[in-house]
Design brief:
Blueprint lengths: L2 H10 L3 E5 L18 E2 L2 E2 H4 L2 H6 L1 H16 L5 H11 L4 E5 L5 H4 L6 E2 L2 E8 L5 E3 L18 E5 L8 H13 L2 E5 L6 H12 L3 E5 L10 E3 L3 H8 L3
Parallel strand pairs: 1-4, 1-9, 4-5, 9-10, 10-11
Antiparallel strand pairs: 2-3, 6-7, 6-8
The structure holds 2'-O-acetyl adenosine-5-diphosphoribose.
2'-O-acetyl adenosine-5-diphosphoribose binds next to loops.
C-alpha cells in the first residue's frame, strides 16, 4: 500500500497496535542505540545495559544514565510524537507500546503509553523492587531507596532481563487482536518489537513499517523516510 491507501486502511481498523523504537526520538536529538548512542566512554551499550555491569560499577552506570537524562531533558517531542498523540486521542482501539524510555510520548500528550523497556525517570530499589519517579539529572551520591535505604538502580529492562509482566501481557494481547500494526523507528533487532509483529502477522494483521533504513520488521508495507515526515501524513488526525 502507498501512504494514502494505508491512511484509509488504518481509518477503517478498530484495533491498531503501534510500536515505537529509538528512531522516533532521533529527530528530537536523542541518539539511537544502533546509531550514535551505540557507544559511551568507549563502551558498547550491550556492556553497559546489564545487571552485571551495574553490580560491578554502579557509579559508572548511573553516570551513563545521568548523561542520557540530560540529553532527554533538553529534548522536545517532535512532529512524529505529536501527530501520533493527536491521532490516538481522537480514536479508541489504539495501543501504543514503546521500547523508548525517554517519556517523549507522554510529553507530546499521548493518552496512554505501555513502557515495555521501563522509564528513564524511575528508580527501582535493589532490595525490595519498589519503584519511584525521580527527575534528578545528576547523583553526587548514588540514589538510595526511601523505603529501606538500599541502593537504587534505573527502572529499565536490561539485556537478559524479563519484560515487566503486566506490560508484556498488554502488548501480547494487543498484538494477538490487532487488525494493523504500525512500527516506527525500530531496527527490529530487539526481540520485543520483532516478536510482537510476528504474532500479529500470524493472526493476519497488516504490518506497516516507518523507517528511513530497511529494518528487520516483517512488514507488508514500508514507508522509507523520517518519522517526523511520514507520521503526520500516515496518521492525519
Ligand atoms: P535501534 O537503535 O536499534 O534502531 C533505531 C532504528 O530507528 C533504526 O532502524 C533506524 O534506521 C531508525 N531511525 C533512525 N532515525 C529515524 C527517524 N528519524 N525516523 C524513523 N526511524 C528512524 O532502536 P530499537 O529498535 O528501538 O533495549 O532498539 C532499541 C533497544 O535496543 C532499546 O530499547 C534497548 C536497546 O538494546 C533494551 O534496553 C532492552
Amino acid at each position: 500500500m502507498n501512504i494514502s491507501q494505508a491512511r484509509r486502511f488504518l481509518g477503517m481498523c478498530d484495533r491498531i497496535l503501534v510500536i515505537t523504537g529509538a528512531g522516533i526520538s532521533s529527530e528530537s536529538g536523542i541518539p539511537t542505540f544502533r546509531g550514535a548512542g551505540e557507544r559511551w566512554r568507549d563502551r558498547h551499550v550491550s556492556e553497559l545495559a546489564t545487571p552485571a555491569a551495574f553490580e560491578e560499577d554502579p557509579r559508572l552506570i548511573w553516570d551513563w544514565y545521568s548523561y542520557r537524562r540530560e540529553i532527554v531533558a533538553r529534548s522536545e517531542p517532535n512532529a512524529a510524537h505529536i501527530a501520533l498523540a493527536n491521532w490516538a486521542k481522537g480514536r479508541t482501539g489504539v495501543t501504543l507500546v514503546t521500547q523508548n524510555v525517554d517519556g517523549l510520548h507522554e510529553r507530546a500528550g499521548h493518552p496512554e503509553v505501555a513502557h515495555i523497556h521501563g522509564s528513564l525517570w524511575h528508580n527501582r530499589c535493589t532490595e525490595c523492587d519498589k519503584e519511584r519517579e525521580d527527575l534528578a539529572l545528576l547523583y553526587p551520591e548514588l540514589p538510595r531507596s526511601p523505603c529501606c535505604g538500599a541502593l537504587e538502580r534505573p527502572a529499565i529492562v536490561w539485556f537478559g532481563e524479563r519484560l515487566p509482566a503486566k506490560t508484556r501481557e498488554q502488548a501480547l494481547a494487543a498484538a494477538m487482536d490487532a487488525e494493523a500494526i504500525v512500527t516506527i523507528g525500530t531496527s527490529g533487532k530487539v526481540a520485543t518489537a520483532a516478536s510482537l509483529v510476528r504474532i500479529g502477522k500470524l493472526r493476519h494483521a497488516e504490518i506497516f513499517d516507518v523507517n528511513p533504513e530497511h529494518s528487520c520488521i516483517e512488514a507488508n508495507s514500508r514507508f522509507a523516510g523520517l518519522a517526523g515526515e511520514i507520521i503526520p501524513q500516515l496518521l492525519a488526525a
